[in-house]
Amino acid sequence: MQGGRVVIHFGREITSKTDIKREWLVTNGMGGYAMGTINLTRTRTYHGFLVAATQPPTGRTMLLAGLDIWLDLQGYSIPFVTHEWSTGVMFPDGYSHLESFYLDGLLPVWEWVYRNVKFIQRVWMPQGKNTTYITYTYTRGQQPVKLTVKPLVTYRSHHHTTKGGAQVHVTPIQWEGGKGLDILPMKNLSSRTAETDPPPSPFKILTNATGVSNKGDWWWKFHLATEKYRGQDDVEDLYQAGVIEHTFNPGDTLCLIATMDVNPPESWEDSLHLERQRQKQLRESNQLDNALEWVQQLGLAADQFIVERKIDDIPGKTIIAGYPWFTDWGRDTMVALPGLMLATRRYEEAAQTLLTYSRFVDMGMLPNRFPDTDISPEYNTADATLWYFVAIYEYFQAQPQDKELAGELYPTLARIIEWHKRGTRYHIAVDKTDHLLKQGEPQLQLTWMDVKVDNVVVTPRHGKAVEINALWYNALRIMGRLSRFLDKDPAHFLAQAEMVKDSFRKKFWYADGGYLYDVVDTPTGNDSTLRPNQLFAVSLPFQLLEGDQARSVVDVCADHLLGSYGLRSLSPDSPDYKGTYGGDVKKRDHAYHQGTLWAWLMGAFVTAHWRVYQDAQQAMNYLKPFADHMRDEGLGSIGEIFDGNAPHAPRGCPFQAWSVAEVLRCYRELEKAL
């Protein structure tokens, strides 16, 4: 270990088993990534060493999916890889030679051992480049040894699989660092290729190896175990793009560089040094030196979600909602910004993100998401815009001197308020009778509980949703604060906020349950379904509930919804509760917001608990289980969701921005009181 502190480390008690659950991730700051399991068995369509962001931060394209690596030693062939095949066989058994795996800061490191021979493997991506470095260093042994590497490639959307048989042109090339392979598939190799897909672009594998040939062939029927569990296509073919051989003396390093970039790459020594220095600077600027080690690791993990997004060649920032399959979502970005950027002291990037999204406001709405294959954003959300106000408020709490940014954002925010008062898309509008915000159309899902199955909205929540109105109240109060800050009259915003507060307290309190209705004024009346959304009436910067009512909301949520890693999206007492998240897309979607445990909601619960009970130590205690979770799924990070039923097995996206962010935000909030 030469870089950061090692918080995540496994020995043979884990590495020498057929573990296919724990996953590592490296990113390039532009939406591209490399990802896999610790024993390098591919279990997802998303597992590979180079997923390039061809339209940063989207257009993610799988290029180098795997490496077949064998050590040649005194007549023996020893695998440093494990494949699983559609027949159910795992071969070869490279996992049996994996002595340890650890994260050096954010960089995954493998230690492969056979008898007295040891190799250390590292993987990293330089920032701002669709490039991945993979190195193998011969660190122990006396005699010369040889590695044989067969790169397994494709050219497809990272969401899909490859069906073999297409022609792939591979040409041996020379570069200033040695030899390489220029790879050009004749067509997109996705199992769902469309006629409108752009033609593939060439990519390269560059190396300092002693021998390189373009001898190629299709490898058939790899099995992707996680995709099978998810009810997705679980069989894939990959193309062997050549054979790379290198003979080592003790201390030598073989470097493989997979890249779409036109410019020659830096040497692996320089590139690794730069990445280590970058992570060292992140640790210093995060100012988390006095935090627990797992919190410091989360401070580094925050970096993986912060990416570039240009608008008309103007540099900007955004937040990838989660790896591997999410793009940048408006709601997730604004929820995550305080934890990922403010709690880690990345104020300039926070300001850039707020400005970036201001340029996408349309009809008073922030985009819901940016699709992976289309630059046109979608606006089907009632809450992303309101979370924008909260993110802006938190920014100015951290940077109260930034009057220039406040002045630049204020006209956009004022227009947003006006659009909501007179009405914008999807019947999102203020009800003039009670000043609450209503939303919803048939067949549309506009809150964060946004699943639709077979054109049926699972949790429609049409009417006046509890968190939407807590956010609306906060938006008005925040506009009052900004108005004062900019020497403008806040009276109009504050008066409307008081009317919202009065109506909210009258209409949302469900006395029989001692908690808040989830939605009022629905087409069928008030919805008393017990869900966690009510916590935002206590946890947002400007509380709508206080005293006994606030305490009752926290207690009811703790008794019925709280789990080790978050809050259930529905009470187990409900007949619609689904405690396990699995199966095909339809089964998973029906469970997504009907009992599944969500990590990001722990943030609202912890903040609400702290406000009600003023016991920072007890509130901090709710965060402790995440230290163990960071070693169990997405290594060094926090996942999206978990089964509602104990033991709360991790499901969904293994690296989730707002999950990481909310834990960091709460930690910063509570450390001041400890």
Structural description of this entry:
With 674 residues, the chain is an alpha+beta fold. It has three domains: 9-277, Beta-galactosidase, Chain A, domain 5; 423-554, Glycosyltransferase (Alpha/alpha barrel); 561-674, no CATH class. The protein is elongated and about 80 Å long.
SSE inventory with pairings:
Layout: E1 9-10, H1 12-15, E2 23-27, E3 33-37, E4 48-55, E5 58-73, E6 76-79, E7 82-84, E8 90-93, E9 98-104, E10 107-114, E11 117-124, E12 131-140, E13 145-157, E14 168-175, E15 178-185, E16 203-207, E17 211-213, E18 217-223, H2 225-229, E19 235-240, E20 243-248, E21 253-259, H3 268-286, H4 293-301, E22 306-308, E23 317-319, E24 322-323, H5 330-342, H6 347-358, H7 384-398, H8 403-422, E25 429-430, E26 437-438, E27 452-453, E28 456-457, E29 464-465, H9 466-485, H10 491-508, E30 509-510, E31 515-516, E32 519-522, E33 525-527, H11 536-539, H12 547-560, E34 562-563, E35 566-568, H13 585-592, E36 597-598, H14 601-613, H15 616-621, H16 625-629, E37 641-642, E38 650-651, E39 655-656, H17 657-671
Antiparallel strand pairs: 1-9, 2-3, 3-4, 4-5, 5-6, 5-13, 7-8, 9-10, 10-11, 11-12, 12-21, 13-19, 13-20, 14-15, 15-16, 16-21, 17-20, 18-19, 22-23, 24-39, 25-26, 27-28, 29-32, 30-31, 32-33, 34-35, 35-36, 36-37, 37-38
